[in-house]
Amino acid sequence: MNKHKLILTSSVANSFEWYDYALFGHFAPIIGQKFFPNTDPSISLLYAFLAFALGYLMRPIGGIFFGVIGDRFGRRSALSASVICMAFPTAAIGFLPTYETAGIAATSMMILVRVLQGLSMGGALTGSISFVIEHTEKSHRGFTSSFSMSSICVGILFGSLVSNLIKSIFTPEQFNSWAWRLPFLIGIFIFFAGIYIKKHTAETPLFLENESYGKVEQRPLKFAFKHHWFDMLISILINGTGSVIFYVESIYLISYLKIHRGFGEDEVSNLVNICYIIMIVVTILGGWLSDKIGRRKIFVINLVIIILTSTFLLESFEFGSFGSIIIAQIIIAILAALYIGPEPALQAELYPTNIRSTALSVSYNTATSIFGGTAPYIMESLVQNGNMGSGSIYIIVCAVLSLIALYFYVDRSQLAKKVG
Fold this sequence. Notes:
Strand content: under 5%
Structural class: mainly alpha
Helix content: over 70%
Order of helices and strands: HHHHHHHHHHHHHHHHHHHHH
Number of helices: 21
Number of strands: 0
Radius of gyration: 20 Å
Largest sheet: none
């Protein structure tokens, strides 16, 4: 299969998947009102972010399920299945009754939908990473796999643009009544991307080689925990910092600037959209740089900068003018993008082919559940019980743990320099 077509197909599917998933962050305030009502909007928002976190707690289970499929039956099967499974719970949000009409049943259904989304996401991104990396020679793996992460930003940007478009077309009354459902309904189209992957893409050469030599691991989960538990722990700790700053940037700050700082919808939306565009480019740049100067070096430099600047950046959001907030948000966007760009290659090269899909899915999704999915809830809790600047302590601790984990990192991929 043509490599450019492969990257494009995988990226499009990943973008739609993250469009679906990111809508929850963009619509967190109204989801809080509709499904977790409270006289205090900030409390409703807190419950919405808790539901967001609950969905993430299911990602490791989804990672195990789709990861095992990837190692036993092929990367293509795992990726297409996870993409198809994401379409239905996202579209279901567009049909759910609200608390006003169904009471606690509506809240329960929203939580169930989030759980199903989390299960599907457990196999999507890591499936995409394994799929692309195993079609790519080692010297270009950082650059090629960075498109998987860049497509996350494309999907989130698409979600933001669609959300803004809906809000501009309909009146506030129409939006609050029913139009907020429309972007979720559009998410059903990811179903067709999953079907395309299943029918029109090739299995990775490395999996086919393992299969031809009878080296497909029949119990990849047991093997991974028995022989690679320390590598998986390293992977979780490395991923932790990137997950926190990415989800603070892409999910939390949108609601924080509107609710706690009182900035207008348009100015906040324009700022975050600009940041998404910056991240799309810088993520690919980070992957390309990792091929040139080494992945570990980029991570160390990035983590040191995060430790030195996080307090200043968060205090800018809490006390600064909108001009200083623009600067702070762009800096965080760049740091987050430089972190996630080289990460797929660095994480995938930690594992051999026979258990890569399972080990990568478990470790990556565990990290994003513990650190990423809970980040909006933790930050909002810190804000409501103190000040936003205290969140920098949380970020710094994560960064120190990531630096320690990098010290023990070893490339265990044992991949050939050229593939195919």
